[in-house]
Amino acid sequence: MNLYFVVVALATLFGIVMFVIVMNFGLLWLRAMASGASVSFASLIGMKLRRVNANAIVNARIMGVKAGLKLDVDKLEAHYLAQGNVPRVVTAMIAANKASIPLTFERAAAIDLAGRDVLDAVQTSVNPKVIDCPDPAKGKRTIDGIAVNGIQVRARARVTVRSNIDRLVGGATEETIIARVGEGIVSAIGSADSHKQVLEHPDLISKKVLAKGLDAGTAFEILSIDIADVDVGDNIGARLQADQAEADMRVARAKAEERRAMAVAQEQEMMAAIKENRAKVVLAEAEVPKAMAEAFRSGNLGIMDYYRMKNLVSDTEMRTSIAGGSQVDSMSTTEPKT
Questions:
Q1: Does residue 338 contact residue 297 with C-beta atoms inside 8 Å?
Q2: Of 221, 239, 257, which closes a domain?
Q3: Whether 119 and 143 share a structural domain
Q4: What's the pTM value of the predicted model, to 2 decimals?
Q5: Which residues are within 8 A (CB) of 181 and not within 5 positions of it... i.e. 6 or more apart?
Q6: Which of 133, 158, 223, 280 has the smallest number of CB atoms closer than 10 Å to its CB?
Q7: Distance between CA atoms of 214 and 217, rounded to whole angstroms?
Q8: 117 falls in which pLDDT band (50, 70, 90)?
Q9: Which of 231, 212, 207, 225 is nearest to 141 (CA)?
């Protein structure tokens, strides 16, 4: 009797568990089974225990199977647990399969986990993308280069690219493409002998830029570079020459001012030297009366000699005055005291 109740209790418990399972996963299991993408109850229960969104996994599997893809539930669940976007990855694989682009689930999941939009990459690979160079969002509208003759040329290009699935992980982004193309345009304009050559043949710029293989190491493949607009800018060469001439003139003025200052300083030094020599002459003339007094005391100079010397000085001054020459300062003499 007790065994009977145990069996009934176990059967009741089993029935309750099956009822709960059917109520939670029955419709999802039935939908997967009807779509040909069957998922076992054990897998659904495991997803519930691992806190995986079973609806997202089953819907992604159904979508992939209907598109002819074989998707493993465990891989879908693992990508979901890795914080990946399972529906977007499956959608990208379907788009790649329809476009005959080889894309495995592992590669698509790696691209998604790397932070790239795998669906946008596949769509760009199918429908090439056009990138404006320079980027108008950065506030610059043209790429400016200077030809050999000094004339500025302003150009604007449109770069057509498509995604390279093999280099999408770790490849450079659109900013690198824009920077490389801009550098190539500036280099191509700078190598032109004249701005007229650039205006006549703008395709020379695109050919030179394409020949450099600017898409190396990027997540894109450059299909074409088209010069959308070319304009003539300022005459940078003439402006630089004018600025150089102005700078040379300022340097010449500075050097002339330096030479003038040196000449003024030298003039002042010469005037100081003249005054010093005059002072020496005055000092020397002051010694003359003393020498004459000493000559009188020693008997080397007589009074007649002194008067003859005075007459000679007066006669010289008179002759000079008559001749109209400059006035000569007479020798300052004093009567020696005996």
A1: yes
A2: 239
A3: no
A4: 0.57
A5: 133, 157, 159, 209, 214, 225
A6: 280
A7: 8
A8: confident
A9: 231
